[in-house]
Amino acid sequence: VVSCGQPAVSAFLSSRTWETFGRTEVIDNTLNPDFVRKYIMDYFFEEKQNLRLGKVFLKCGLFSPGADVLFSLHHSGIPGKKCGTIILTAEELSNCRDSAMMQFCANKLDKKDFFGKSDPFMVFFRSNEDGTFTICHKTEVVKNTLNPVWKEFAIPVRALCNGDFDRTIKVEVYDWDRDGSHDFIGDFTTSYRELARGQSQFNVYEVINTKKKMKKKKYVNSGTVTLLSFSVESEFTFLDYIKGGTQINFTVAIDFTASNGNPSQSTSLHYMNPYQMNAYAMALKAVGEIIQDYDSDKMFPALGFGAKLPPDGRVSHEFPLNGNIENPYCNGIEGILEAYHQSLKTVQLYGPTNFAPIINHVARYAAAVQDGSQYFVLLIITDGVISDMAQTKEAIVNAAKLPMSIIIVGVGQAEFDAMVELDGDDIRVSSRGKLAERDIVQFVPFRDYMDRTGNHVLSMARLAKDVLAEIPDQFISYMKSRGIKPNPAKSPTPQGKQHKE
């Protein structure tokens, strides 16, 4: 990727196969090129997005917008010989998420109603590249007045001008009629840049009815519209909080009830096939490999439920897979998988299938950190019908107040009607007449993602995408409900990551 004296860098993007994403310009005669060309890439929290710079590989979740990431290049033929460093900087496009708050009033609008005054409202249109206009906002109707004051409204800047501050904005003023044949009073044009000046003489607009102006020589206007206030509010995104240092804490909980079948038999959902991961391991790996990139230390608590534990055979619904009650943390997803495999050799599958203890376990940690610095994601992988439905609903209603989300993956062929009920997409979960404050549960049945062609990589990518798609919105809904704003992005303190080429 680097030619002597004429540096350039090619980037390749991959979800399944590598495709050329972009190539920088060539800069002649320098060993310290500062490339100008920028590339816009769609970012999806729920997908595994890989980027390759030549032979340097990285995951998009590993670098935060605003922070530099350094990659050392090494000579492929001479061990230890360095060939320089690539510095990668990412930033999030911001004007796509700003909202403009505006309020208008009008004065001396034309009277259109025979028995009264007018019932005016305004319609805003964004101009398009081809000269056409697209409606982007409509105010409420103010009844029986020629001097209306409309309510303040918010509109995304992207919807208003698509990021082009000088693009024409057309505003039409109408008199509302019950039958829908609204009478046109007049129109005017402006731009986002003009509106951003706020209340001033520049933002008093004459409402012109062109047909009326052509007919009447003494026509001046059909009234005026005045901008009373203008402000811009930025909608904070999931990435804003990640940039500010919010950590995603990932916890996994695995069902060890007897309905899974004897792990030593091939019919068991826990069977350890030497040639292929079982459904539990695949679901854990698919979801965990994406979430782990948002946790700095990659240490994750891993729990089991519904088993008898040695040495006394007591039943537990929240035991550590690594056997260490004081420190249930596993190192990365591979550490969790190893602890899972080991626990199958020591515990006895039993029952019943209780979710509440696990949910309450994670909720206790979430309740201790409600300042926006941490968010907790619990992945429950289970095979069967919940035994403690009432307690689980109560636990979810309580957890909905906390910085927490729950993912449930159902494995096996059981009916999962109760899980769908917990999902809360159609009807919000309730307990004792109390509705959950937020929808925090996402459920998917694993069997829906088994690819008939046997392509497990593709199947698991689809699984991860569907179960993680709601996490950013659930995350933002908590932060907004608590009025928590993201911390300023941390100063770039790049840490070198060694990648041999």
UniProtKB/TrEMBL annotation:
Residues 65-205 form the C2 domain. Residues 490-501 have a biased composition (Polar residues). One of its GO terms (cellular component) is plasma membrane. Keywords: Calcium, Metal-binding, Repeat. Residues 482-501 are annotated as: Disordered. GO terms for molecular function: calcium-dependent phospholipid binding; metal ion binding. The keyword Metal-binding applies. It holds the Pfam family C2. Coiled coil: none annotated. Residues 249-475 form the VWFA domain. GO terms for biological process: cellular response to calcium ion. The keyword Transmembrane helix does not apply. Belongs to the copine family. This is Copine Vb.
